[in-house]
Amino acid sequence: MLHTEGSLLTIDVGNRETRTEDIDDVLSSFVGGRGVGTKLAHDRIPFDADPFGPENSLYFTTGPLQVSNMSFTGRMNCTGVSPLTGGLLSSNAGGFLSRNFGAAGYGAVELTGQSDELLAIHVTDEGVEFEDVSHLAEATVGEVGEYMDDEHGLGDDQLVVAGPAGENRVRFAAIMTTEHRAFGRGGLGAVMGAKNVKCISFDGDSAPDIDINQIQMDIHREAATADDHPMKKAGTTSVTEYANHVSALPTHYFSELEFEGASDIGGDAVAEKKFKRGTCSQCAFACKLPTKDEETGLETEGPEYETVMSFGSNAGVDDVVSVMKSNDLCDELGMDTISCGDVVSAYLAANDEFGNSDLVHELVEKIAYREDEGDLLAEGVHRAADELGVEDWTVKGLEFAAHDGRTLNGQGLAFAVSNRGADHMYAEFYSKEYPLVGKDEAVDPEGLDGKPPLVVEKENHNAVLDSGVVCKFSRDFMTEERLETLLDAEYDELMEMGATVVELERHFNNRRGFDREDDTLPYDLPEFESALSEYYDERGWNDDGTVPEGSSAVSADD
Ligand code: SF4
């Protein structure tokens, strides 16, 4: 199998020490990205680690294609124990960081320990430097970028940054890069903040070489010329009106599935605000959305579809500029827009304030600094629901993404079983259930009959892409045969690796107390319990949702 090259760089921020070690066996078995991050985290983080403690670690990893010129490779991975779910979680960010990370020459970077001082860490192919940046306490993502540019000549595409929310341990704080791109889900920004690390920069000239092959060039050319693809115009928001039409758009804190203001915040509304092309490293598909509102001067990137849901329909807000502003505030303060929008919507539901944009923006700021009611909301929906008097719309503590499972029932099952919680990209099953997108391979969104094996297959396939690291929006361009050629392995071998990644996550989470009781939903689906048993059976797991003793995926000495 093709795999990432390079050693593991460990940065112990408590002792300000670094070391490198050979991890070729891990790289050759797990390709890169999420696979490598998961294997390292599973084997090196204690099962009882406090997510905010020094024993939790973050693993930054790329895949072997991140040094290529192929489209859909402008992303990288981060893995650690989530302070939101309490489970092992990988998050994936786009932008231009992956090439700069690769240029520093390491296969993976492990961030561990806890510093007394607020630190910036500079990683280059010549070594690591620690910089005391106490003066950047509670600085926004943009302010950190300005400082690093002025003082070190570093671009924001060379940085990962914890915003004020990360420093304040907001449980859904994101790690930000390239200004508007986020390792968004699960609160890894709060793990970085708890380590007292404000920023890490990557620089160098030591990227490994890669052979360019015909498949890479074909994919790149097709991505560049797919002019009619809806995502080229409006990115992920292109699905908004369709999701609303088929009753899959969560609205008014999940109490409805259609939003009458959908067209005011959806694909066309966002596309109207788009003022230039936006992309990730080397990607000719360019689905990103740099947007600008001439009237207010607000300039940001996005919102993406999920943010249109969380800060738009779910909050009862039908003003696209308001959603842009919520999105921008989250990027500047360093928070996941899905979890933040959902917890704000929960507050609006509790106080009968749907549609109050001023209150939405005030709450976002208060959450980042944990001021007043923001302190409760910073804990996320799962921990705040009782006090707010609202239903707990989470799975494993992670707030729901859009593509509602009450309409797309297979996606509902996928939300329930995902090791990451209610995240849409773990299995991305909605793409099979929307007839518009799935075309001839679409499945009936109603019911769960026959779907558990398909969910397993999608989860494994996505674990392969996340290890590659190949953007999931390559789905209309990436056949099994192409993936085999790109990663130089049989598809079955790759899928086996994907299954191992999912099983390692599950095993780690089992050891932290997760089982079938956690694979649950806040709504009923037909034949849900039997579908759950079928899913476990397909994976070879116990009927209580645990990985059996002696599983080959799990090393014998743990
Ligand atoms: S398809 Fe979009 S998100 Fe994926 S790498 Fe390309 S620009 Fe980035």
What do you see in this structure?
The structure is a single chain. The chain is α+β, with helices and mostly antiparallel strands and 558 residues long. The chain contains 24 helices and 16 strands. It has helices spanning 24-30, 33-44, 97-103, 141-152, 164-167, 188-194, 214-225, 230-234, 240-245, 262-265, 267-273, 305-310, 320-333, 337-350, 357-369, 373-377, 381-388, 409-417, 430-433, 435-438, 451-468, 480-487, 491-511, 528-539, and strands at 8-12, 17-21, 58-61, 76-81, 88-93, 108-112, 119-124, 127-132, 159-162, 175-177, 181-183, 197-203, 290-292, 299-301, 394-395, 398-399. It has a 6-stranded mixed β-sheet. The protein has a 6-stranded mixed β-sheet with strand order 8-7-12-9-10-11, sandwiched between helices. α1 crosses α2 (33-44) and α2 (33-44) packs parallel to α23 (491-511). The chain is globular. The two termini are 26 Å apart. The model has no long low-confidence stretch (mean pLDDT 96).
Describe the secondary structure blueprint for this structure:
Elements (H helix, E strand, L loop, with lengths): L7 E5 L4 E5 L2 H7 L2 H12 L13 E4 L14 E6 L6 E6 L3 H7 L4 E5 L6 E6 L2 E6 L8 H12 L6 E4 L1 H4 L7 E3 L3 E3 L4 H7 L2 E7 L10 H12 L4 H5 L5 H6 L16 H4 L1 H7 L16 E3 L6 E3 L3 H6 L9 H14 L3 H14 L6 H13 L3 H5 L3 H8 L5 E2 L2 E2 L9 H9 L12 H4 L1 H4 L12 H18 L11 H8 L3 H21 L16 H12 L19
Parallel strand pairs: 1-6, 7-12
Antiparallel strand pairs: 1-2, 3-4, 3-6, 4-5, 7-8, 9-10, 9-12, 10-11, 13-14, 15-16
Bound molecules: iron/sulfur cluster.
The site of iron/sulfur cluster has 13 residues, from loops.
